[in-house]
Each structure stands twice: as structure tokens, then as C-alpha cells.
Amino acid sequence: MAVPVTVVDDSKISRKMVIRALPPQWNIELTQAENGEEALAACRDGKAEVMFLDLTMPVMDGYQVLEQLQKEQFNTFVVVISADIQPKAQERVKKLGAIAFIKKPVKTLDIENVLHEYGIV
Amino acid sequence: MYCTNTVSFKSVNKTITMSIPPYTEDQNDALQEVVNIAMGQAGDSLARILGNFVALSVPRIRLVTVEDVIKTVTDMVDNNAKISAVRQAFSNSLRGEAIVVFAQAGADDLADLMGYDTDLDRSAEQELLLEVGNLLVGAVITGISETLKTDLNFSAPSLMAERTPLDQVLVPEQLSWSHALLMEVNFTVESRDFNCHLLMFMAEEAIDTLRSILDEFIDRIQE
Amino acid sequence: MSDSNDTTNLLNIIVDRAHVGIFVVNQQREIVLWNQFMEIHSERKADTVVGQNLFEAFPELPRKWLDRKIENIFILKNFSFTSWEQRPYLFKFAHNRPVTGGVDCMRQDCTLMPIKDDNSEVQYVCFTLFDATDTSIYQSKLEKTTEKLRELSNRDGLTRLFNRRYVEEALEKEFNRARRYNNKLSVILTDIDFFKKVNDMYGHLAGDEVLRIMSQRLASGLRGTDVLGRYGGEEFLVVLPETDMQGAHVLAERLRKIVQAEPVAVEGESLTINISLGISELRDNTAAYAQLIAEADLALYQSKKNGRNNTTLFQPDF
Fold first, then answer.
1. Do residues C224 and C306 both lie within one domain?
2. Domains in chain B: ranges and CATH
3. What is the DSSP letter of C192?
4. Ranges of H-type helices in chain C
5. Could you tell me the CATH number of the domain that includes residue C218?
6. A51 vs chain B: nearest CA distance in angstroms?
7. What is the ipTM of this complex?
8. Tens digit of each residue's pLDDT (9 = 90 or more) over C188-227
9. Does domain A3-114 have CATH number 3.40.50.360?
10. Would you call A12 and B26 a contact, using CB atoms and an 8 Å cutoff?
């Protein structure tokens, strides 16, 4: 059965870069979101078992999405994808419940490693 | 912190858009993303040598004319006090210059942040500014060149200003272009006084070259 | 022999013989390459240094600083540079201007280049070292000339005192500083009495001589922080930082007496020269530095009216 996956980024090109880097054999049902609010809506609609989340976005940023997901107790696997790759930023999102932090530009290998680690693929 | 929506390539006035066709929405989006990535790497490099968390602003990209470059930069840097600045040229597929502007308090705090004795002589102070300027510019140029898969080189850094008012650093008469693409990001160490701005300028023909490099990049993603 | 072998040989020769220093260290800071330029200037053959730790082979290197710089290249994978302007040299090499140089050893610019493997990990750091001695000599000549020109542009040619532009700038600076820190500030404007007569009777050369002597005498009566300049033909302006009108008055009287103390020898005659002085001081309502000069000028005019050879303090009800 296809896994519902949501890719969240305000940049179209950035979403494309993430989607391109997803393992080709992975059977998914893809949703795209341009900001945090759309991302939460996707979660509530059951479209985000796995979420690839950018941090800096208008309307509602990635940190706020993570806080809200914790509050609403979603079981979404959140992989943060960010250009700001400092260790402290990584720590912060992990505290907020993200399972992994991948730096931009995303590589397929980085995504595969995380998915394997959590037995998602 | 949000300053712009996804379309961030804004012309300062309409006459520019007449002479230089604006980038398409996709080109702007790609450029913003590439600059975000490159600036993120620069921030990470800076954080590593300062041993402190560095807050990055969302990079801003503007097309400026020689007449309003000073006002634009002054608005961005938001500091009428004295600054120190380091410049470096980059060349190869894209030509331009990068300038790192240090707020004076930040420059003074640098030695301490980097774990040096704080009573450095003037040469040692200059060396630190050059070192940090080179680190940021090098990381950004490398980031852009790797992401866009284009070759870029950069020159040795040189000191452009020391404790000088900003408006004396950029002098319009010395600028031999009419339009330039300006990319700016601000790095701050929140717990300290340290604050600096990285400005990258590409003039005239580089703006067009970048357009085709961005198209190739977008094509690779679309495949 | 294949083309690529040819090219490799060619590159080896070029790297070895190029007129720049080229050497490479690995992560352990062991030297792995040392070209001819480095051999000649360090007087150490490649086979005696290759395999050795850079800092053990050359203990005079600024180890702590350079080691950190190299380490940063392995971590950050970024080019790095050093310039003679901040750090004159890494290696203490002789330069090729032993006669005309005027510097003790070779000035050096250096580029540190990361050499990466296929996984983008840095394996080596390659140094290229450029002889910047000539540049440094030209630059220091240029700086000396610039400094001389700057000094000249601030001076009055005849008296060697500061010129009007300079002394006004100094006053403006002191005015701003006094405003900011709430300091005192006063100004003396002084004029040689009957100077026109000296010129008319003894000629301009004699007049010039009087101006020169007066300038020396005025300068000899001042304190280190006072700024004296030739303001006009026979007019002089003195800026007195952190001095109120009373202090300025004492100083002005001292100047007046120093100037007239000894007669001046002009064309075989000995003349007693007097000066008149006017003083103003910074008040809460002083609008600009120029007002201080204008007020001192009014006071000076009053001194002239009172029969010359005296000092007047500016009063707001003049």
C-alpha cells in the first residue's frame, strides 16, 4: 500500500529537489505543502505518515509545525530538511520530535539512510 | 523570521525592468534556494570556528542600480555607525565581488569569540577580519558552485575599510556598472555583539549568465 | 609515452621550477612535496624535509596560529590566505634585494588550498608562497610619500604652522567633542599690530621674516594640546581644548608678552612687535564652531579699538 508522504517547503524548486531524491522504488502517495498550515492540514487529512519539512517558511515555519504536531499527538515521522545545518539547529528540531535532520541540497542516500534506520522502507 | 515571500527578486524601480528582463518565477525560486543553501553552509562554517550558534537572516536578493546601491546597502546593514569590511572577487563562470561588512562592535568581539587574546595589535585584528571574511565568502562561493554545478574561483581577501562610515566604503563614482544583482545575508551571534553582513554583487553580464545557469539547474531538477 | 604521461611530466617540472614556493602537507602536517623555490630559499633539500613534520622541520614557524589555519582547511574545506600586510612572512627567507631592499627578509603572500579526494574529503593542504618583497617596498615608499603630502597639505608654506583649513577642521573636531563630553573649549584669534607698516617700510621679505619669527614665538608659548594655525595674512588662530575663558586669558597674556619680549632684527633695525588678541569660549548657545571664530574676531576688533597690544574677552553684549 502506498505510504502517504507530504513534502513541505515554500520553494517549488526545493520541493522538487526533495521529491527527486526520494528512493525510486518507494511506493508513496505524495502531497505537497507550501507552508506550515498546509502541512498541518495534510496531517489532519491523513496524508502525512512521513513528512519532509523545511524550517524557514512564511505563514507558519517548521519549528511551529513541529510544536503543533506534538500538541496534537500525531505519529508523523518528520524529517527536517534545512539549509541551516548548525548542530544547535539540529538539536532543537530533534527535541521537538523530528526523527532526522538532512542538509540541503538533499541526496537520495541521506534519505534512504533515515528511512532504513526507522524501518520505513 | 520572514522578510519576503517566495518571489524575492524585486526591482527597485521600473526603469531597471525595462533594461534588464527580470528573472522568471522559477529562476527566482531556484536562485533563492541556491543562495539559502550556500548561506546556510557559510553560517555553519562560521558557527564552527566561533563555537557559537549563529543566527542567519533569510537571504535577500535585489536588483540595484548604481544610484541606489548605497541606500539599499545602508538599509540592509541598518547601521550608520562605523564598520570594517573585507572584499573578495570571484570569477570563472560568474564574475562578481563579495563584501563582508562587520559592525564595529562585532569586529571588536571577534578575537574573544575565536579564543584569542583580546588585546591584539592592529595586524592581528586585520588578520582575523580577513580570516572570517574569507571563510564566509569561500563557503558561499563553494556552496553556489556545487549546487549549480558551475566552476567558481575566488581571490585572496583584502581589507576594504577599517572603522569607516559605511557611506565612504561604497562610492558610486568608483562603481563601473549600472545594475547589479545584490544578495545579502546577516549573521548574528545572539549571545554576543557579533554581527556581520555578507553582500554579493554580480554586475551586468553576470546577471544574464546566471540566468542560463539557473535554467540548466532547473532542467536538471525537472528531468 | 602517452600524452597523459607527457602532461604529468610537464606538470612535475613546472611545479618544481615555478618561481613561487609550492609545498604540500598532509593531515599529520608532514611535508609531502617541496619544490625548488622552497629548497633554494630555505636552503633545505626536498629529500631532507619530505616526510618530516612541518613544524619540527621549521620550528620558527608561528605554530599555534598556522596549525589552526591548516586544521580549519581540513574541517571547512575552504581556501585560505595570508598576506604580508598583516603577517610579513611565514618562513624567514632572504630576499633578492639585499642592497636596495630596506627590509630584513622576504615578504610573503600565501595561498592555502585544500586538495580533496573523490569523496570530497580534504587529504592535503597545498601552500603556494609568493615573494611580495617588491610590492611591499613600493607600498612603503608610497605610504611615506602620501604621509609627506598629507603633512604638506596641512601646513602653511611660509610659517610651517598649520594652515587655515587644518586649524578650522581641528576646531570643528574639538567643538564636536566638547559638545559630546560637555568639555570646555576656547579660541584665541590674534593679529600682529601695524604689520602693514613693516611691509611698507621694509618690504615683503622683511614682513615674511617677521611672520616666521612671530610664528615660532607663538608656538613656543603653547601647550601640547593647543592647535595653532595661520588664519590669514598676519592673523593666527589658536584652539584651546578643555580650556575656559580664564585659562585662555592667562595664555593669551603669556603669548602677548613672549612676542614683545625681544625686539626683532629687520634690515639692520630692531623692531618691537606687538600683537592684539581676542578670546571667545564655548557657551550653551554657541551654534557652531564658526561662531567661536566670529566672536573671537569681534573681541580682537575691540582690542584694536582699545589701542592695540592688549587682550579682550568676548562678551555676549558686545
1. yes
2. 24-218 (3.40.1550.10)
3. E
4. 3-17, 36-42, 46-49, 54-57, 63-76, 133-153, 164-181, 195-202, 204-220, 245-261, 289-305
5. 3.30.70.270
6. 19
7. 0.87
8. 999 999 999 989 999 889 999 999 999 999 999 999 899 9
9. no
10. yes
